[in-house]
Amino acid sequence: MTEHYLVLAAILFAIGGLGVLIRRNVIVILMSVELMLNAVNVTFVALARQHGSMDGQVIVFFVLTVAAAEVAVGLAIILMNFAQRKTINADEIRLLRG
Amino acid sequence: MTLFWILACVTIPAALTVILHRNPVYSALALVFTLFQVAIMFVALDAHLIAFLQIIIYAGAIVVLILFAIMLLSLEPEEPGDGRSSLRAAGWGAAALLGLELVAIAAVFPDTPAAEKPLPEGYGSVAKIAERLFTTHLLPFELTSVLLLVAVVGAVVMARRRTGP
User: What pTM was computed for the model?
Assistant: First the structure.
């Protein structure tokens, strides 16, 4: 049972990684990162269930907090960048590349 | 077990819709759907509090925030191709490789009989998780508040700079 959920989480993580690699819209990239975080959460909860321990669920609580903070700051960066440069294409955002 | 296969058959197409749809609004709606499926997985794995938090925080807060951002930005769908198909193919290859590796690791996971043993009383309940949160994991919990403060200050600073000189 546990390994079924682990395989499903692995597939979801790979789909999220695919989204980060092939999309150029930074908002979609952010959503793909959320998918990857969710896949990891499924892994944590499945393994916590397997071991009958609740520490995995507590870690998921922290991951949720980090995801919320990440989205808030990430969207603020995207909106500010759009206001200055009029683009949300990841290929055209190269300020840090010099 | 039937529930798992239904979840798997629904979640994977929804996740693919998130990353492959050209219109980001549909991507966000597919993301909400995927997150609800993951919440159902959490319920199936006896993590009831986490399932509620998943729906409240992700579907209720994060996706609404993302939808606000999409509405504030331009809504032009992404153009396909434009001469970068080799990079795109490389992305597909790398993601397929990553997926195969992860599935191979997960598939050989030893399914020990621990999964069959009865769960402790109140497993996944609010009281038990809160107890662990405020005893064993107290330091990370307090550090989380610092993280949220930093995120709030960072977002406010970035929002203010635009109106400044």
Answer: 0.88
